[in-house]
C-alpha cells in the first residue's frame, strides 16, 4: 500500500513563511477535506445504514482508535447523552491506553495488540454490535488486532482510514477511505486527517440519532436539561413547537416531564382527550 499520509508536504521552508502565509496555506489545505469526504459519501452512507440497523435492534456501536482520531471519537460520543438523550453505552469509544488518559499522548499504546480485544470483551461485545476502527494510516496495530478479533467472532466492522488499500480497510466489512493527501506538516495527521475524522464522526452520530428518532423537525427534543442555558433553550423550543406563550408555565411543564419530547407527548395526549 502507498502511505499518502506520510508523503512530504508540498510546502517547503515553512520557517521562512509569515504568519499570514502559514494560515493561508493551512486554510487552503483544509478546504480540500470536505471534497475528500464527498468522494467517500457512498462508503460513509453504507456504514451508517449498518450502524442504524444495529442500534435499532438493540445493538451498540464502538469506535476503536488511538492517537488524534481515537481522542476525537471520545469527544464525539460523550456529548450524545446530553444532546440527544441517547442511552449511555449505546455509542462507545475504546481509546488505546484508556479514555481516562484522554489528555495524555500515550502514542506508544497504538502498538498494543492485546488491549483492543480485551476492552471489547470487558464490554461483552457480541454480533449484535458494530465496531468502527479509526486509523489515519490504516495500519495501526491496536486497531488492526481489534478488527481481526471482531472478524473471528462474527462482529460487524467498519473503519475510517486515510490511505487506500490499507490492511485495516481489508479487515473491515464497511470500510471508509477518505484520501486527504499529504499533510501541511509532513506526516502530521492531527491536521487534515483528524479534521476529516471529526467531520465524519459528526455525520455518523448526527445521522444515526436522527434516524433513531431522537430529533424532530430540526430540533434536539431529547436534550438533557443539565444547566440553565440548555433549559432555557428547551423552554423556548417547547414554546415554539407547541405554540405556548407563558414562559414560566412552559418551564414548569418541561421540568415536570423531563424533556421537550415528553412534554410534547403529554400535550398531544391531553389535546386528544
TrEMBL record:
Keywords recorded for this protein, A-Z: Carbohydrate metabolism, Coiled coil, Lyase
Coiled coil: 96-123
Protein's name in the database: N-acetylmuramic acid 6-phosphate etherase
The UniProt record lists the keyword Lyase: yes
Record-linked SUPFAM superfamilies: SIS domain
Family annotation (PANTHER family): GLUCOKINASE REGULATORY PROTEIN
Domain SIS intervals: 51-214
Species this protein is from: Mucilaginibacter boryungensis
InterPro entries reported for this sequence: Etherase_MurQ, MURQ/GCKR, SIS_dom, SIS_dom_sf
Record keyword Coiled coil present: yes
Amino acid at each position: 500500500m502507498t502511505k499518502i499520509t506520510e508523503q512530504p508536504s508540498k510546502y517547503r521552508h515553512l520557517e521562512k513563511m509569515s504568519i499570514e502565509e502559514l494560515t493561508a496555506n493551512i486554510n487552503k489545505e483544509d478546504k480540500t477535506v470536505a471534497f475528500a469526504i464527498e468522494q467517500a459519501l457512498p462508503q460513509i452512507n453504507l456504514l451508517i445504514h449498518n450502524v442504524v440497523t444495529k442500534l435499532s435492534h438493540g445493538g451498540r456501536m464502538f469506535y476503536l482508535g488511538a492517537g488524534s482520531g481515537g481522542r476525537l471519537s471520545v469527544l464525539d460520543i460523550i456529548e450524545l447523552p446530553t444532546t440527544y438523550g441517547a442511552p449511555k453505552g449505546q455509542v462507545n469509544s475504546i481509546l488505546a491506553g484508556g479514555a481516562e488518559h484522554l489528555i495524555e499522548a500515550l502514542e506508544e499504546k497504538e502498538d498494543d495488540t492485546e488491549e483492543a480485544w480485551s476492552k471489547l470483551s470487558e464490554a461483552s461485545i457480541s454480533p449484535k454490535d458494530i465496531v468502527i476502527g479509526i486509523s489515519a494510516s490504516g495500519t495501526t496495530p491496536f486497531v488492526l488486532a481489534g478488527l481481526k478479533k471482531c472478524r473471528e467472532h462474527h462482529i460487524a466492522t467498519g473503519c475510517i482510514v486515510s490511505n487506500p488499500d490499507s490492511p485495516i480497510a481489508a479487515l473491515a466489512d464497511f470500510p471508509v477511505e477518505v484520501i486527504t493527501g499529504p499533510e501541511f506538516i509532513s506526516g502530521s495527521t492531527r491536521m487534515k486527517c483528524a479534521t476529516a475524522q471529526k467531520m465524519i464522526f459528526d455525520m455518523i452520530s448526527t445521522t444515526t440519532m436522527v434516524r433513531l428518532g431522537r430529533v424532530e423537525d430540526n430540533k434536539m427534543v431529547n436534550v438533557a436539561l443539565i444547566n440553565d442555558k440548555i433549559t432555557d433553550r428547551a423552554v423556548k423550543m417547547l414554546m415554539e413547537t407547541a405554540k405556548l406563550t407563558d414562559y414560566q408555565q412552559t418551564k414548569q411543564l418541561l421540568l415536570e416531564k423531563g424533556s421537550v419530547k415528553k412534554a410534547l407527548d403529554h400535550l398531544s395526549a391531553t389535546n386528544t382527550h
